[in-house]
Amino acid sequence: MLVVWCPDWPAVAAAAEARAEVTRAVAVIANNRVIACTAVARAEGIRRGLRKREAQGRCPDLLVAQDDPDRDARLFEPVVTAVDATVPGVEVLRPGMLALSARGAARFFGSEEAAAERLVDAVAAVGVECQIGIADELSTAVFAARRATLVPPGKGAEFLAPMPVSALALEPVLAAPQRAELVDLLHRLGLRRIGDFAALTPAEVSSRFGADAIIAHRCARAVPERPPAARLPAADLTVEHRCDPPIERVDMAAFVGRLLATELHTKLAAAAVACTRLVIHAETEAGDRLSRIWRCAEPLTPDSTADRIRWQLDGWLTRRALDRGRAYRNAQACGTANTTAPETDSPTAEDWDSGPNAAITLLRLEPVEVVSSGALQLGLWGGVGEDEERARRALIRVQSLLGGDSVRVGVLSGGRGPEERITMVTLGDEPVPAADPAQPWPGRLPEPAPALVLTHHPKIRLEAADGTPIWVTDRGLFTADPALLHWGSSSWRLTGWAGPWPLDDHWWAHRFSRGFAARAQVQIHAEDVRRLRALLLLGYNDAWHVEGLYE
What we know:
Blueprint: E1 2-5, H1 9-18, E2 26-30, E3 33-37, H2 39-43, H3 52-58, E4 63-66, H4 69-86, E5 91-94, E6 97-100, H5 102-109, H6 112-124, E7 131-134, H7 138-146, H8 156-160, H9 179-188, H10 194-198, H11 202-208, H12 211-220, E8 239-247, H13 250-270, E9 273-284, E10 289-295, H14 302-334, E11 360-372, H15 386-402, E12 408-412, E13 422-426, E14 452-453, E15 459-463, E16 484-487, E17 490-503, E18 517-525, E19 534-540, E20 543-550
Parallel strand pairs: 2-4, 5-10
Antiparallel strand pairs: 1-6, 1-7, 2-3, 5-6, 8-11, 9-10, 9-11, 12-13, 14-20, 15-16, 15-20, 16-17, 17-18, 18-19, 19-20
Helix pairs in contact: 1-4, 4-6, 4-14, 5-6, 13-14
Protein name: DNA polymerase Y family protein
Keywords: DNA damage
Organism: Nocardia terrae
């Protein structure tokens, strides 16, 4: 496999869209942190993960752009076209990275080194720098591309062995979102290199880790991640759409792509399969036939399929708009220009005219590689993350109506009590806790944490069997065995308790001004209570309060 990687592509695309100078430092921001930057920005001390304000402080002349996957895919299309014109059979892994078979290219150009040089020249012709990696397997070729290396046949495992195990989670086209947790676990187990992880047997990995660890282990051993004989998809899984009127704008492409993605995944679900390689075909009014293959590390979802359709059509339409702009200037230089043609290279709303070279009349989706639907875990409502996406959109809508601070989400924080371990952050802000939860917290409430935390702390009465109120002695013990709990007009008999645990912190707080504070867990016994069985009590100011409810 041969992989073409364009380093720092989100930053390169942002610089190209802004028409920034080559010497200008550029950084792409998402969630107020740098996710990509150019080499000039790195020379100024900019790094991924840096906060926006700190990055601007290190480089005042920094050009900051927001993360935009649509922009990245649209501007990557000329690179894909240049590579495909040199060596056919290109598969897009993501904007900024593509793959193809190295065997045919090596035979045609004479060697793998010659093929790599020709591809570098082809990409440089469109004004983009790239690196080439060649290896037996796709995952190994991705690592090789990031190091501009041609790995000899059969030496993939030897090439990967000295790399840090964190590299397994570095490239999103190879790693699932939960791969970072696996890398952290491997670090804590003392497996710091990919070779250390590869030394484990497949039985040891499969019996101790999850499914993603098995994929990562196969990647570390440089063995095929997918079986050599992929299941051929049935012909009836192909879906197509006749565009009437023809697609001329990106918003029309997004709408049609969403409909077609839904239809495709309905057929895939009925056949109990999921798609991992998808071909997007398009035909124009002029009779042009366009085709592009998208390969994914995980089975495609309806949302990811719709995104790739939108990106691809956006790239095709934009390229044709730019071609018409160049053709107009050439004709203008010869004195034969049409005054209604676009005059600039930057496509605007006026550039999407009804010319036959831009309108797309047919769109077809063809899955060329499918896997069992067991590889795709559906969400609760039939889709992957659809419930979370609906909830997020609803919260954003509420936020737009009531104000930015009206919707807040909880972030796990550090602390001893359940209320302290929750940091409320405004929706959309970076989820930064008030204290580090990874630090040791002596005296922290034992697990499990209560399911519901009450911030208003309603007052209750805790009594012994003879009705005597119960408090805590100077030695941190109950004055008597708890037997009854009174909450408002309700009373329950207690069947067990744990604690109390004296609180040495918050002695400066006003609510803890009289005496010391303590926590206790009590278990109630009542036939009329179906779910509530235990409470977390917080005692201060000579009274007990309910801090949390267990279910």
